[in-house]
Design brief:
126 residues, mainly alpha
């Protein structure tokens, strides 16, 4: 099961901050990165992380009990809802902005897109 969005963001950020050699390479860029990350709405991130955990738990239960169609429908519905969610779009834009400060330092955040879900079943991506 993939890690929730917020947890992946946190772990990615932690990896960047823990990477001491980067400070020696470009301390100004690291400071800009830290400032940019500080602008991320932590309450919105926490809400999205909690929602993500609940969603993946529900998907996991549906897949384990053989309710593949219900799991797929839920995943598509959730993907559409997240695409419309203004908080999610704002977070994605801020994360993209931060990742451009130091390209390659933050791994991409992988969430199943609607296109992916239409091509591959959610139960097969777990």
């Amino acid at each position: 099961m993939p890690l929730p969005f917020g947890l992946r963001l946190f772990l990615s950020s932690l990896a960047v901050l823990a990477n001491g050699f980067v400070w020696a390479m470009d301390p100004e860029a690291m400071q800009r990165m830290a400032d940019c990350m500080a602008d991320i709405d932590q309450q919105a991130l926490a809400r999205l992380e909690a929602d993500s955990r609940a969603f993946y738990d529900r998907i996991d239960r549906l897949c384990r009990t053989g309710q593949r169609d219900a799991a797929q429908s839920l995943a598509i519905e959730q993907s559409r809802a997240m695409a419309r969610d203004p908080e999610m779009r704002k977070l994605q834009a801020q994360i993209k902005k931060c990742s451009q400060i130091m390209p390659g330092m933050m791994p991409p955040i992988e969430t199943p897109s609607l296109t992916t879900l239409q091509q591959r079943h959610i139960c097969d991506t777990q």
